């Protein structure tokens, strides 16, 4: 705990970056839990015989949109990390 206390000045200056990173990680985790739930409901529909072509197509498009959302979330998180590293190298120090 004393380490965190000593580093509080650093966290105070970088709080927007850490807040954004935490939010992006939570969003990414939530997005990654949606696909198994959707696939499970499709399997249940197949077993009960209530799956229609329209609902299957809607589910496929939903899964494609979900994959894009996960990719975009990961890309934003990675780009933020990469830009931080470039700023560190431009200032003459390695990140």
TrEMBL record:
Membrane-spanning residues: 15-39, 59-77
Family annotation (InterPro entries): ABC1_TM_sf
GO MF, one example: ATP binding
Membrane topology: Multi-pass membrane protein
UniProt KW Heme keyword: no
Main location: membrane
GO cellular component: plasma membrane
Keywords (A to Z) from UniProt: Membrane, Transmembrane, Transmembrane helix
Keyword Transmembrane helix carried by entry: yes
Protein localization: Cell membrane
Signal peptide start-end: none
Domain of life according to the entry: Bacteria
Annotated SUPFAM superfamilies: ABC transporter transmembrane region
Descriptive protein name: Uncharacterized protein
């Amino acid at each position: 705990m004393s380490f965190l206390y000593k580093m509080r000045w650093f966290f105070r200056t970088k709080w927007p970056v850490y807040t954004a990173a935490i939010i992006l990680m939570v969003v990414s985790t939530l997005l990654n839990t949606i696909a198994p739930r959707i696939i499970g409901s499709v399997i249940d529909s197949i077993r009960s015989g209530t799956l229609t072509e329209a609902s299957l197509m809607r589910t496929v498009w939903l899964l494609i949109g979900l994959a894009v959302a996960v990719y975009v979330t990961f890309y934003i998180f990675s780009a933020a990390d990469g830009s931080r590293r470039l700023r560190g190298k431009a200032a003459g120090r390695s990140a």
